[in-house]
Amino acid sequence: MKILRFTFVVLFLLSACTYNPFFADDEIKDNSKFKISGQVRLDETDDFSGVSIYLEQLDLYTETDKRGNFELNLQLSPKLQVGSKFTGFLHLYYYVNNYELKTSTIFMKDGEFGYGMADLDQQGIVKDDVLLGKLLDVKTTITPNKIKSDYTGQVQIQVRLENRADSVVVFTHFAKEKKLGSAFLKGKEAQFDYIHLISQPSNLVATVIDSVKYWTMDINWEVESNEVDIGKYEAIPYLFVYQENIPDRLLFKYGKSASVFSKDFINMPFRRKTADFEIAPKSD
After folding, report:
1. What angle do CA 206, 211, 214 make, to 5 degrees?
2. What is the SS3 assignment for 211?
3. Quick one: which of 53, 61, 95 has its CA closest to 78?
4. What secondary structure does DSSP assign to 46-106, as a single string?
5. Domains, in order of start, for the chain
6. Rounded Cα distance, 251 and 86, in Å
7. If DSSP codes are grouped into helix, strand and coil, which group holds residue 128?
8. What angle do CA 105, 135, 39 make, to 5 degrees?
9. How far apart, in whole angstroms, are the C-alpha atoms of residue 158 and residue 151?
10. Which of 154, 175, 221, 237 could make an S-S bridge to 159, C-beta 3.0–4.6 Å?
């Protein structure tokens, strides 16, 4: 009977502890310490999906759902899978190109998140909801918005910008007479994964939008017959909102050339109003 009682006590202790007291090297890890979560909100909208969440040093990346919730799983980091036991403070980035970049501070010890330290609470949740303020409002129109495939003539793409901060630095292409020099036509149908680059002779320019509340730019696109495939598109101007301290590794998540005029730019999170455009079959 004493032997059975002793065995029961040992089994109870083993199940109640986070490590084996008789075999100190055989730790039983609490998986919750390998995850963090939080919520991000965007100004002027109730759809908080698609916000980039990036943890530096460990190169961990995810995106928010429609309610702004996110979760990062530390065990997905290749740097820790190969045995790294990082200790120190890290920045957690929240990013949408035309919204204010924000960060939280995360503490790690021996490859685990420091719950109850820095900006994490005891449950591994970012203590405060994060609100990203809008820097720039972008609205695009296109005239005419429907043409035949054999159309030859001019299509005007107009972009209206409104700064929502004291000053916003925007990189774009300017053609002659300060006309906007570049934009994209992105296929809207799932089976039609096509992006057409509209580019005119132009120079890359960094423009500070501050004293002028509204700013309008145009592209006078000279369409040649059969230049673009038949289908439905959305017109997207090339506008990169510059902010200091955006990690290069984060930008690389969208493609090596995401910040310049390339197809990678379309992958970047950006909240704007695009213009619908359709190319129909030519007349009989």
Report:
1. 80
2. coil
3. 61
4. S--TT-EEEETTTTEEEE--TTSEEEEEGGG-HHHHTT----EEEEEEEE-TTB--EEEEE
5. 28-132 (2.60.40.1120), 136-280 (2.60.40)
6. 23
7. coil
8. 40
9. 20
10. 237
* Chain segment 55-110, per-residue pLDDT in tens: 998 899 999 999 999 999 877 665 555 446 788 999 999 999 999 999 999 998 88
Cα separation, 138 vs 172, in Å, equals: 13
Q: Prior bond to 144 cis, omega within 30?
A: yes
Q: What is the pLDDT of residues 185-217, one digit of tens each?
A: 999 876 667 899 998 777 888 888 887 667 788
Distance in angstroms (rounded) separating the CA atoms of residues 50 and 71: 13
Q: Token match 């501050």: residue?
A: 210
Phi, psi of 70 (to 5 degrees): -145, 160
The end-to-end CA distance of the chain, in Å, is: 98
- How far apart are alpha carbons 213 and 215 in whole angstroms? 7
Pair of tokens at residue 220: 């006078």
Residue 275 token pair? 């213009």
- At residue 205, φ and ψ (nearest 5 deg) are -130, 140
β-pairing verdict for 275-280 and 146-148: parallel
Residue 224: how many other CB atoms lie within 10 Å: 9
